[in-house]
Amino acid sequence: MHSDFSLALLRWFAANGRELPWRQTRDPYPIWLSEIILQQTRVQQGYDYWERFMRRWPTIELLAQASEDEVLREWQGLGYYSRARNLHAAARQVVALGGFPHSMEGIKSLKGVGDYTAAAIGSFAFGLPAAVVDGNVYRVLARHFGISTPINSTEGKHEFAALAQSLLPISPNDQTTNTPNDQTSNTKIADYNQAIMDFGAVQCTPSSPHCQTCPLVESCVAFREGRVGELPVKLRKLSIKTRHLTYIYIRCNGCVALHRRGSGDIWQGLWEPYLLEGEPLPNFDGHLTLLRKGVKHVLTHRILMADLYLLECNSKSALPEGYQWVAEADLDQYGVPRLVEMLFDLVGRS
Fold this sequence. Notes:
The protein is α+β, with helices and mostly antiparallel strands. The chain is built from 13 helices and seven strands. The chain has helices at residues 2-16, 28-37, 43-56, 60-65, 68-75, 82-97, 104-108, 115-126, 135-145, 154-166, 183-203, 221-224, 338-347, and strands at residues 241-252, 255-260, 271-272, 274-277, 287-298, 302-313, 324-327. Strands 1, 2, 3, 4, 5, 6 and 7 form a seven-stranded mixed sheet that branches. The relative contact order is 0.11.
């Protein structure tokens, strides 16, 4: 039963798999880079960022030598900026180690690398017998095997991880191996992991899956029982909080007031102009212009509602603690959140 499932996916993948540049190599650097970028990011959008990073930093040693600000600037627009900070920190870890670790434990020791990413790197680069379990895999397995356990519950995570591991196209004796396998096994493991992810992304999609042309339709429990739209099951999400922000782009004699966001909140390490949150506008010396009111910006567990202003001043007044004057011509050197980038676009820069 399980072997038929795996073989059917491999046959489907041979005919329908997506051609992506990081799949044409066993070098762990471009593979790892793609996996970090594609966390919470669609392939179409992530592809351009991957190419941009590879052009600027073609080796992990060069990425490790970059500053965090440079990395954040290249990442701008992708969101979830902790990924960029972790990427940079992990690059420095790898260089300090003398190269990428070859075991699952070693790979998971890298900053920002969890079970899924470690399995992807381990299987794609080194042929380790580790099953990937991402949103696509949860969906394919839940539907095909008719599993109603919530995928974001502790029980569900264990159940799906065990099932995914049992489906790898390798012999039982290799299941616990933590060292690279031979080239044949390497290719089968990598192809299978890529196959099930692509199958979920292309065939067994979240909505309107292509069941009529599915090679697994005859053995699919969800299709047989009319539950395709019900699976996978996910526990109710956390409540979404709304925050109200006021950004003021303070311009004076070719300079702009900026500060770097601290830890413990959204956009850690990124730069932003003068910010008020839950406070009324103070009296300013200068000409204040409302550029846009009530801009909605949605994050994972927050909705941001922002009012965006431009303040033109004739003289530089004392700035609040943490803020500094930055040459307006140099703003492109600072990594900023997408919301702030929108403000920059509205202001227009001389």
